[in-house]
Design a protein that fits this description.
This protein has one domain: Enolase-like, domain 1 (2-Layer Sandwich), CATH 3.30.390. It is about 5% helix and about 50% strand. It is built from one helix and six strands. The chain has one helix at about 75-80, and strands at about 1-5, 10, 20-35, 40-55, 60-65, 85-90. The protein is elongated and about 50 Å long.
Length: about 90
C-alpha cells in the first residue's frame, strides 16, 4: 500500500484477497424496542449477512438491510440468486 501524498492509501499494489469461504444468510433482527415511522411502528428488520473468510482465517462481514416500503430495495430481490437457507461456498 502506498501513500498518495494527501494521507489516503492507494491500493494499486495489493494482491487480490485470498477468499476461501463465502457465506450468505438471511436473518431477522429484532429491535430492543419498536421504532416509530410514518408507516407505523417497526419492531424487526430482515437482513442479508455476507461473511467472507480468507486463507489466514480472517473474517469480514457485510450486510444489506433495506427497509421494506421505504426504499426500492427488498430482501427478496437481494437474495434472488440464492434459494433455500444459508449458502456457504468454498472458494478455489
Amino acid at each position: 500500500m502506498t501513500d498518495s501524498g494527501d494521507g489516503r492509501a492507494e491500493l494499486g499494489d495489493l494482491d487480490p484477497p485470498d477468499v476461501r469461504r463465502i457465506k450468505i444468510e438471511r436473518t431477522e433482527l429484532t429491535y430492543q424496542s419498536p421504532i416509530s415511522t410514518a408507516h407505523g411502528p417497526v419492531d424487526n428488520r430482515e437482513v442479508v449477512v455476507l461473511t467472507l473468510t480468507d486463507g489466514e482465517g480472517r473474517i469480514g462481514l457485510g450486510e444489506a438491510a433495506p427497509l421494506a416500503n421505504f426504499t426500492p430495495e427488498f430482501i427478496d430481490r437481494q437474495n434472488s440468486p440464492f434459494t433455500g437457507g444459508p449458502m456457504t461456498a468454498p472458494c478455489p
